[in-house]
Amino acid sequence: MAGIIDGKKISQEIKDEVKEKVEQLSKKGIQPCLAVILVGDDPASQVYVRNKKRACEYCGIKSLNYELPEETTEKELLALVDELNNSKECNGILVQLPLPKHIDENKVLLKIKPEKDVDGFHPYNVGLLSIGKADLKACTPAGCIELIKRSGVDITRKNCVVVGRSNIVGKPVGMLLLSENGTVTTCHSKTKNMSEICKSADILVVAIGKEKFIKADMVKEGAVVIDVGINRMENGKLCGDVDFAEVEKKASLITPVPGGVGPMTIAMLMNNCLIACKKQNM
Q1: 173, 268 contact by CB (below 8 A)
Q2: pLDDT tier at 79 (50, 70, 90 boundaries)?
Q3: What is the DSSP letter of 227?
């Protein structure tokens, strides 16, 4: 039976570390500041924004919150991003996705200055990530790496398989595993013999967006399994991309859903905001 990787506990450790460093900065008269922009009234986005605000309060990070109506134009949003880019007070800018259909997400994300891109999505930061030089790393992939390392697993020389190739999780988590000296294979919808490839993994990271896709017969005995997926079942409960009940019997370590990768995303966002503030002030 697998050990459970407690994302809530590890994310709390990271937030406590950030809080301590923020207190040290405040003694020098520096306070990290995060601007969060929400356009429209998507309920899930409102929950995420509320959680980010709460995390900022806990860590001592000032938060600027912009809740804009659904009909906000692209031009108006870009003007706000520009204003925050030029603000000395604001260290990080986060535009909550998804945006309304009349706004081009890529145009907005490209507008954010790379040094204030605390989501780690700007092509400049993605490029730095690809050569192992990124300071601001995409939050969810960086959170996956922290879960693995803080659970006492050395990634060096491990056979790592990533299921999913999205720009938000699959590709960056593969690059981060490479930078930790793992040997990385990426699987996706066009991959042949996916079951056999997954079964070769010492570390299996799954971000494919399909409910309970990974079954026990796709997992190596003793593997470390990181489930990034979050799906709502017909009964209303949440589940991941891994069939937890089956795979838990074979893995050595596994993340639950919820309570695994999810809490890490906001913790790593707080860490990115701290890093951005330090780079801009020191």
Answers
A1: no
A2: very high
A3: E
pTM beyond 0.85: yes
Give the separation between CA 273 and CA 81, rounded to whole angstroms. 16
92-112 pLDDT per residue, tens: 999 999 999 999 999 999 999
SS3 state of residue 69: coil
Place of tokens 């912009």: 66
Asked if 57 and 87 touch (Cβ cutoff 8 Å), the reply is no
Beta carbons of 62 and 87 less than 8 angstroms apart: no
**Amino acid 211: pLDDT:** 96
What pLDDT score does 282 carry? 81
Sketch out the chain's domains with CATH numbers.
30-113 (3.40.50.10860), 139-262 (3.40.50.720)
Q: Which two tokens stand for residue 9?
A: 């506990």
Q: How many CA atoms lie within 13 A of 20 on its CB side?
A: 6
- Identify the DSSP state of 100: P
Question: What is d(CA 214, CA 203) in angstroms, rounded to the nearest whole number?
Answer: 13
**CA neighbours closer than 13 Å in the CB half-sphere of residue 251:** 29
DSSP helix/strand/coil, 196: helix
φ and ψ of 54, to 5 deg: -65, -40
From CA 4, how far away is CA 7, in angstroms rounded? 9
Length of the chain: 282
Helical axes 139-150 vs 170-179, angle rounded to 10°? 40
Contact between 134 and 120 (Cβ < 8 Å): yes
pLDDT at residue 1 tops 90? no
Indicate which residues carry an active-site annotation: 52, 96, 119
Contact (Cβ atoms closer than 8 angstroms) between residue 210 and residue 229: yes
Q: What strands, in cross-sheet order, belong to the sheet with 33-39?
A: 62-68, 33-39, 92-95
